[in-house]
């Protein structure tokens, strides 16, 4: 089964930006003022290309065959058995092959999120005469314990580590990594930059 993990904050903000751009493009077309409008449209296009590359495209994809790390300008695919180690700090770092490293763009954990997770793990149960605690089912209690002290990045790192260990136990072959360029991001950024240069020259 395919699982896709993204930065929820970046994803939401990217779509907010796209809505903002759509409104402004409509306004610039309706109130077209010549060269200034062309420059503004080109700048909006360039910024939108960058937003796509750094906010919409990056994702960590878990498939049956392996891990696909989609970064702004390239995708690295690692078969599960080829993964040697996974560490999580503010980002997920995957070591594979001959001491090679893949740093995943998403999900990342901020210092604030990590501190919140630690507080959640060490928070004492609040009980008193006027306070009642809801009774949790065994499944809910197990989920609470599994997530205690962990950020979203920690949890995704655990999933990657578990799948890699399972693949090695099954005796799967450690096939080499495959790295491909993200031509859509590259073309968008190049075209957007060319439009900005052209608009500035015309202006």
From TrEMBL:
TM segment ranges: 12-32, 38-56, 179-202
Q: Carries keyword Transmembrane helix?
A: yes
Q: Does the keyword Membrane apply?
A: yes
Q: What is this protein called?
A: Low molecular weight protein antigen 6 PH domain-containing protein
Query: Where are the residues of the annotated region Disordered?
Result: 115-135
Query: What species is this protein from?
Result: Nonomuraea antimicrobica
**InterPro entries noted in UniProt:** CFP-6_PH
Query: Keywords of this protein's UniProt record, alphabetized?
Result: Membrane, Transmembrane, Transmembrane helix
Which domain of life, per UniProt?
Bacteria
Segments forming domain Low molecular weight protein antigen 6 PH: 57-92
